[in-house]
User: Fold these one by one.
Assistant:
Number 1:
Amino acid sequence: MEEIVGLAPSGSMGSGYNVDAFKRGLAANPHFIGQDAGSTDMGPYYHGTGAPFLPLATYRHDLSIMLRAARERRIPLLVGSALTSGCNATLEMAVRMVGEIAQEHGLSFRLATISAEIDKAELKRRLAQGPFESLGPDGPLTPETIDRCGPIAAQMGTEPFVRALDAGAEVVIAGRACDDAIFAAMPIMQGYDKGLALHCGKILECAGLSAIPYDLAEPLLGRVRRDHFEVEPCHPDHRCTTVSVAGHSLYERGDPCLQPGPGGMNDLTDATFTQLDARRVKVSGSRFIPDRIYRVKLEGAEQVGFRSIVIVGIRDPIMIRQIDSILEEARQRAEDRFKAAGGFNLLYRVYGKNAVMGPLEPEVETRSHELGLVIDVVAPTQDLATGVVMFVRGTLQHASYPGIVTTAGNMAYPFSPFGIPVGPAHRFSVYHLMALSDPCECFPMSIEEVRN
Amino acid sequence: MAAQTQRLDQLAKVIRSKNAGPFELTFDIMFDDPAAYEAVKKSGVINAKRIAEAYRVRVDDVLVCRPYDAAVAFKITIRRPVSSGDIEDRDVYGCQQHVPLTSIEVPALRAAAG
C-alpha cells in the first residue's frame, strides 16, 4: 500500500519506553523513527539556563536503542527539540551523545544537525524591522528583554527536516522544533497531504498518550496515506479508539480544531475519526491552511532573581487554626528587617490549605491535621534569598500566638540543612512570532559523515 | 418544582487541566456517555461567563469555550493569571487546576433527556 509509516518510541526522550512494544513497531516496517525531546512544559528554568531536564545518561539510554534500531533497518531517525529547550548548548550535548553511541556500536551514517537558537544581535536586527506579536508576555518584544534572556530559540516547522532528508541524512538531530513537524516531514517530502501529515504527527509526538491505557512510554505507529492516516499502539493489548484519538487533539492545545504552527493553521474542524478494528483508528479531513506570511514562534526565559526555600511541617492544631495571621506577622518582620537590603518576593506555599490553587482554592475551611509549608523567597542575590528565608523560618519557629502550648518550637524539619539555595529563578519573557522569508533561514544545517 | 441538578464530575469521565504553552491553561471535559455529553451541551451551563467566574478571570480571558463532538468533549482555554513557573506560580504544568469545574451543577441526566 502507498503509505509512509512513522514509529514514535515515546512521548518524551529520556523518560524510557516499552522496548518490546518498540520491537513490535519495528516489525511493521516503519519508514522512519521520530522522537520529541523537548518542551516548555517543565517551566522557564530550562529555557533560561539552557540546561537539559534530565541527566544525560537517561537520554543516552533511550537514544541508543532507537539509533541502533534505525541503523539496523536503514531508516532515518529524526529527533527534535534536543534537549528540552533545543538551544545550541543542549543540541551539542545530543550530537556528542550520538557520536559516542555510534562509536560504541560501530555505526556509520550521514548525520544532519539543525540548530534553532538565534543569535541575539541578529534577533535585534530583525526586531528593528518591525514588532513581533506576543503570544503571552505583556507587550511586544524589546531589545532589553532579549539581552536579559538566556538562549532564545525558534520552533522550526517541517521544512528544515525535509531539507535534511533531501540531503540524504540518515540521522537528524534538531534543536527546538514543533513536535508534529518531526513526524510530518517525511510524509510531506513524499508528497502526502500536509494537513494529514501534521495531524498524524501531533498524535505520534505524544506516543501512547492517545491510546488506552494512556501511557507516554508506549510506542505508537502512524501510517499516512493519500487521503487519510491511521494510528495504532504497538503494545498488543493497548488500543486506539475514536474518542482517545480525537481526545488527544485537545491535549495541550488551546483550540481543538484550529491548531496554528509555522506557516499556517491546521484545521481539524472537518476531521472524522473511524474505528477500523479494536486497536486502530482512521482519521481523514484534516486540512492545512497556509498563512500569507510564514512565522515561527520564539521562546526564551529571563532570570528574575535567585530562589531559596525552607520546607517544614506543622502539626499543632492551635497553630494551624491561626496559620494565616502567624505567617503574615512573620512576613511583616522580614520586610522590616530587610527593607534596606533590596526587594524580595516571599511566597508561602501552604500545602494542606491552598498551596496548589492559591486564591482560586474553592475550599475555604482547612480540615488537614497537618500542613506542609514551603517558604519560598526570590531575591536579587542567592545570599539575600537565603538570608530572608532563614529569617522567616527563625521567626516562625519561635512565633508566639494566642493559646500556644508548644513553646519549644513550631515547625518540624524533614532534614538538615534547612535553607536550600535552589538557584536562579526564571520567567518566560519571549513567546513571540517572528516572520521569515524562507522557512529554513534561521535553522542552519550541518552535515557530517559519521564513520566507525 | 426546582429542577434537579447533578455535579459535572458525576457525568463526565475526564475533567483535566494542563498548560497549552506557558501562557494558557486549557481544560478538557470528556464523557464516555454520549447522552450525558449531549445533555450538558444542550443545557448551556458550560459557558465563558461561568468559567470566568470559576477562575476569577475576565470573560475576555476565556479564549476558547466550546463543545467538540468528535471527542465527545468540551474544550476550555483561559489566559493563565501567572505564566508557568513565574515567581508566584503554583502549578508549573497547570495539571491540578481542574477542581472548580468538577462542582459545576448541570441538569440531571434523566430530567434533561426527558
Number 2:
Amino acid sequence: MKEEVCYELYGEHISLKELGISVLVSTSFAMLFFSAAPAVSGVLGVQPAGISITLGALGATIGFAISVLISKVKRVVVEV
Amino acid sequence: MDPLSLLMVLVLSAVSTLLYIFVGILPGTDETATMAPIALTLLLAGLDPLLVLVWFIASIAAFKMADSIPVALAGIPGGVMAVPQVPDAIVAKEQGLADTILRKGIAASIVGQVVALAVTLSISYYLMPAGDWLRTADVVLGVKVARWFWLVLAGLVVLALTSRSRYVALISIPSFALLIQGLRGVYGRTIFVSFFLGITIGPMLFELLSMLHKDLRQAYARRGMKEVRLVRIGKISLNPLKILSKDELIHCSAWSAVTSILATVMSPVGLTILIGDLLRESSKDKTRGAVLAYTVRDAIKNATYIGGTLIPLLVIGEPTGPMAAGPAAPFFQKLDSIGMSPRDYIVSRYDYPTVVLMLFIATAVSFFIAYPVLVKYSRKLTLAVFRRVPAEALYGLFIAIVIMLSYYDAKLAGVFGTLVVSMVSGALWKLGVSLGVLFMTLVAAPTLVGLLTALPL
C-alpha cells in the first residue's frame, strides 16, 4: 500500500486529507449548533444571541471529539 | 463577594487550569489562537467579564507552566512563548539535566506570576488616576487623537524595529491600517473580531495555503511519523522552595517585576528572548548559563502575560501592547450585550479589592491544581497527549471556532474578511513581521488612517 505523504505544520506531521475532514466536521457541528440557537432559546426562554456562541463552541468541541477518533496520531514517541 | 461568585471563581479557575494544561502540553499551540477565542466565546456567551478575567488569569498560570514541559522532555515547544527555551533545554539535556530544568521551570512560573500580580496590581492602583488623562483626546491635524494613541504608536514602532524584518514591519504599519479601515468602510461598521482572528490564524493559514501550491508543497512534504524523543525523569520534590537556588530566585523575582511593567508596551516573547539571552551570555559556564536562562525565561513568560494584560486593562483602558492587543484583546472590545467593553464593565462595576482578590484566588487555584499535577504526572500527561491527540483534530477545532466567530461578527462577509486579513498577516509574518505589530496596528488603525489622510502630502 502506498504511504500517504504528510506535511509539516508547526513541527507536526499532518495529513491534508485528515485536516480537511477535521475542519469540515468541527465547522459543520459548530455551525449546526450555532444555527439551532433560535429554536433552543425559544424552548429555554432566553435571547438567541446569548446562547448562539455557547452552542457553537459546544458543537465545535463535539466535532473535535469525533476528529480525535477519525484522525491518526502521526507521532512516534521514543523514550530515551 | 457572595458565596455563588466565589464558587464560580473556584470552578472556572479549576476548569481553565485543567483545559490549559493539555493545551500547553500540545506542541505548537499559539497562545493568541487558543486563549483569545475561548475568552471571547465566554464573553459573547454572557458570562460576567470579571469571571472571564478570572478564567484568563488561571489559563495564563496553567498554560505557561505546561508549555515548557515538552521543551524540557522532548525539545519541542508547547507554545510560541516556549520557543526561546529550546536552545537552553538542549544544552541542559546534553548534560542529563532534563528533570532539573523541568522542575525549575515549573517553580519559576509560580514566582513569575505571583511577583507580577503583586507588582502590577500595586502599580495599577496608584496609576489609575492617570487613566483619565490618557483617555483625553486632543485635536491633531483636525483629527481627534486620544493621548494613549501615542503610547501605542511608540510601542508599535519599537516592536517593528525589533521584528526580524524591521523595514517590512515599518512599511506594513500604514499599509495594514489602510487594509483594515478599507474593509471596515466596505462593511459600513467597525468590525474587530474577524480581523483579530484573521491575524491570529494568519501564519497557520499561510502555511496551509502554501501546501496547496504545487511548487511550494514539496518544501513541507514529510514521509512517515514524526519522531519525538522523550527523556526519562527522576523523582521530583513537591516543595517549590527546594527547587530554585537563591540566585535563581532573585533573578526570577527581579526580572519578573521589571518585565511585567515593560510588557505594557513591549512584546512578551521579545522580552523573554532578550533577558534570557543576556543571562545565558553573562555566565562563563555554558550549562549553568543555560539552566539559569531557561528558569528565568519561564518566570518572565508568566510575568509579561500578567503585566501586559493588567496594566493596560486597569490603568490605560486601551490595548497598548502586543499582549493586550493579542491574547487579551477580547477585554477591550465593546460588547453589545453589556453596552461597553468588558474592561469598562470590570472597572466600573467592581471595586479594586474585589478584582485583586479574585485574580489572586484564580492564580492560587490554578497553581494548587497545576503544580502537583504537572510535577507528578508531567511525563505521563505528555505521553498521553503525544500518543492520543492528533494535530489535525486540534487545528480543526480552532479553525471551526474562528469561522463561527467570524460569521457571528459579520455573516459570510466576516468569514471572507477573516480570510483576506489572514492571508496578508500570514505573508507579512513569513516576511519577518511580528504578529504583535499587526495586532497593535489593528488597534491604532482608525487614528492612524485619520492622520494619514489628513497629512498635507
